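Module 6 notes. Inverse folding takes a fixed backbone as the condition and produces residue identities as the prediction. Think of it as a translation problem where the source language is geometry and the target language is the twenty amino acids. Below is one complete input and output pair. Work through it position by position during the lab.
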């Protein structure tokens, strides 16, 4: 079974909260009230844990954008987006988080499998995608898979995948919010 990427628009304050309380991630996606727990380290050190959730916590299941990219394709899509197989530190790190989750980048780690970009980095992701012409995208694909043949269905799939991510970026920019990607 393949795990597909889903992109969600959410406030930076929620990204910060989720990165500090990764055990609340599932509740966040479902729009249910989480139970904040003290970690073993918190208990041992006697640290206080703020158990209040953000006031604007989702009240229903989070809607997302699905570009139909699965976990088996992320290395290829990293190359398509960045034109390199090397690790990147900028907003183009979106796909690499799934195959190199500990690589240094601007992505915020939620729980080691789910990541986010704060609102300040979302415009550069949208610009990065928009900056790739169709010809360049198809050329990079041919290089990535070492095969120059790409039928009409394959071309539309690639274009639609990036259009979907751009739509998620546009929504985040319009709302001045961040962008989280998850496995679903």
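Target side of the pair, the amino acids:
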């Amino acid at each position: 079974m393949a795990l597909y990427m889903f992109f969600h628009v959410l406030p930076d304050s929620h990204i910060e909260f989720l990165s500090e309380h990764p055990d609340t991630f599932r509740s966040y996606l479902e729009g249910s009230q989480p139970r904040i727990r003290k970690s073993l380290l918190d208990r041992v050190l006697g640290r206080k844990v703020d158990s209040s959730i953000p006031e604007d916590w989702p009240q229903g299941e989070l809607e997302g954008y699905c570009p139909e990219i699965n976990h088996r394709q992320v290395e290829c899509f990293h190359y398509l987006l960045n034109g390199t197989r090397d690790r990147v530190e900028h907003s183009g790190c979106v796909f690499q988080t799934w195959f190199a989750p500990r690589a240094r980048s601007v992505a915020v780690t939620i729980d080691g499998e789910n990541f986010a970009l704060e609102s300040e980095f979302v415009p550069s992701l949208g610009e990065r995608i928009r900056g790739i012409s169709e010809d360049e995208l198809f050329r990079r694909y041919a290089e990535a898979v070492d095969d120059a043949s790409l039928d009409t269905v394959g071309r539309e799939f690639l274009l639609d995948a990036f259009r979907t991510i751009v739509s998620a970026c546009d929504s985040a920019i319009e709302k001045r919010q961040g962008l989280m990607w998850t496995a679903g």
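Reference fact for the lab report: Residues 26 and 34 are 8 Å apart (CA to CA).
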